[in-house]
Specification:
By secondary structure, the chain is an alpha+beta fold. It is built from two helices and eleven strands. Helix 1 packs antiparallel against helix 2.
Length: 195
């Protein structure tokens, strides 16, 4: 890509050529009785080299950024088939076990995870007992309270327990969602996981 000056729209190479043309015209047309100061010419050449170096450095930085984004994209591709935990309560059940989690801000007693169908009916519960603060994982196996396999569909998990003061508290629920593909996001080029 060209390194352009936003004020003129000219590339760094064009600016260098224009500067050299002006410099040659200045030398040709200088007064022989009062020649151009050599230090001024040296300063101008130094500034020209600095501008050119900055253009080269900008190109190198963009190439490095593209390589870093590509490496990040390849690293993220290794996640395909894995199931990272995502904050949320919606479960897209497709027949297999689903990893769930609860992130507790405080220790809780009598923690219960309730699974509801799309209509809000309770189809199953899991007694998680007393839990310390932090992340706790458990599995949703797709079996309802009567021992029957539940149909594929969207389900919801709600987690509740009592804190040390005896008040109800609902920790943040997490759902394991399989990564099916990696996408590059528009202009930023960042890797996005499609779950």
């Amino acid at each position: 890509p060209k390194d352009t000056n936003p004020n003129t729209g000219m590339s760094a190479a064009d600016q260098t050529q224009n500067f050299l043309k002006l410099l040659i015209a200045q030398i040709k047309n200088q007064d022989p009785m009062s020649p151009m100061d050599a230090s001024t010419m040296t300063a101008q050449m130094s500034q020209l080299n600095m501008v050119s170096s900055m253009g080269t450095m900008n190109t190198s930085m963009q190439a490095m950024l593209a390589q870093m984004q590509s490496a990040n994209f390849m690293n993220q591709a290794a996640l395909i088939g894995h199931s990272p935990m995502v904050a949320g309560s919606s479960i897209n059940y497709t027949g297999g076990e689903v990893m769930l989690g609860a992130n507790l801000a405080n220790p809780l007693q009598g923690v219960v995870a309730t699974i509801k169908d799309a209509s809000g009916n309770i189809v199953g519960t899991a007694d998680l007992g007393n839990l310390n603060s932090g992340m706790t994982n458990f599995v949703f196996d797709g079996v309802d309270a009567s021992g029957e396999k539940m149909p594929n569909g969207i389900y919801r998990v709600e987690i509740n327990g009592k804190n040390n003061a005896g008040a109800n508290e609902s920790p943040t629920a997490y759902v394991g969602s399989p990564v099916v593909s990696i996408l590059k996001e528009g202009n930023s080029g960042e890797a996005m996981l499609k779950l």
